[in-house]
Design a protein that fits this description.
binds pantoate, six-stranded parallel β-sheet, globular, Rossmann fold, 2 domains, 279 residues, alpha/beta, Pantoate--beta-alanine Ligase, Chain: A,domain 2, single chain
């Protein structure tokens, strides 16, 4: 497995691949878990070479967020990648990736108004900018993103469509702990008690989805079901519990077309997100 810290080093390797060899890409911020490894698995299935980027992107963190304390266990991450058959890791230094005169950003209008976009104003601009730059460097034919970050995935898919990027964009189902808790690098911040209480998010989403499957289409009722489960677990704060359309990511009153039930909840200082798709 190759490890590249510079764009030039990666490009030399990429250019040395035979023209017909395809690259599958799993972009990450490291602290890899089973959810990331599922992205790697899908990328490996769909392409000849698999590239993982590990880069904690400063552009997508707000001033009061966890950029400096975000876990960076590079040795463990690279061992996991090697064991999973990854061809190359791209792990640039922030100063090289974003030189001091870096001035270009990518915005996808509209889809970032609700859900996480409402409380994290420049977050998706930072995500789109880094992912577009990574796509230009990595040159993948396939790119894999997790459904857990559904707003991110749908915004990036729109960016790929709008800018006619020539790649197969895959949204990969959320991987969960046996308790139902969605895998996240931020789960490492939770105490055992918080981790147990946080399972109420998925429980509430599942109960609401079951009610929807039985005919309940009123978004207020479905949100109330999710909220009851979360409130019973005494969260520190609920950022949102929402029902949105998949097309516009905007709140809906009736859950009838392709939709998303989503929640963002703090346990202690840790903000957790999860969602279920209703198709
Ligand atoms: O989902 C993530 O880990 C990040 O948002 C991503 C896509 C790697 C961009 O920094």
């Amino acid at each position: 497995m190759e490890v590249f810290k510079t764009v030039a080093g990666y490009r030399t390797w990429r250019n040395s691949l035979p023209a017909n060899r395809t690259v599958g890409f799993a972009p990450t911020m490291g602290a890899l878990h089973a959810g990331h490894m599922r992205l790697v698995e899908v990328a490996r299935k769909l392409a000849d070479e698999t590239v993982v980027s590990i880069f904690v992107n400063p552009l997508q963190f707000g001033p009061a967020e966890d950029f400096s304390r975000y876990p960076r266990p590079f040795e463990t991450d690279s061992a996991l990648c090697r064991a999973a058959g990854v061809s190359a890791i791209f792990a640039p230094e922030p100063g090289d990736f974003y030189p001091s005169d870096f001035s270009t950003h990518c915005d996808v209008d509209g889809l970032d108004q609700h859900l996480c976009g409402a409380s994290r104003p420049d977050h998706f601009r930072g995500v789109c900018t880094v992912v577009l730059k990574l796509f230009n460097i990595i040159q993948p034919q396939v790119a894999c993103f997790g459904q857990k970050d559904i707003q991110q995935a749908l915004i990036l898919r729109r960016m790929v469509e709008d800018l006619s990027l020539n790649l197969d964009f895959q949204i990969v189902e959320t991987v969960r702990e046996s308790s139902g808790l969605a895998m996240s690098s931020r789960n490492a911040y939770l105490s055992d008690d918080e981790k147990m209480r946080a399972t109420a998010i998925y429980k509430g989403l599942t109960q609401a989805k079951a009610a929807w499957a039985q005919g309940e289409k009123d978004a207020t009722v479905l949100k109330r079901i999710i909220r009851a489960s979360i409130d019973a677990a005494q969260p520190t704060r609920v950022d949102y519990v929402e029902a949105v359309s998949q097309a516009r990511l905007a709140p809906i009153d009736r859950v009838e077309g392709p939709s998303v039930l989503a929640a963002a909840v703090y346990f202690g200082k840790t903000r957790l997100i999860d969602n279920l798709l209703l198709n």
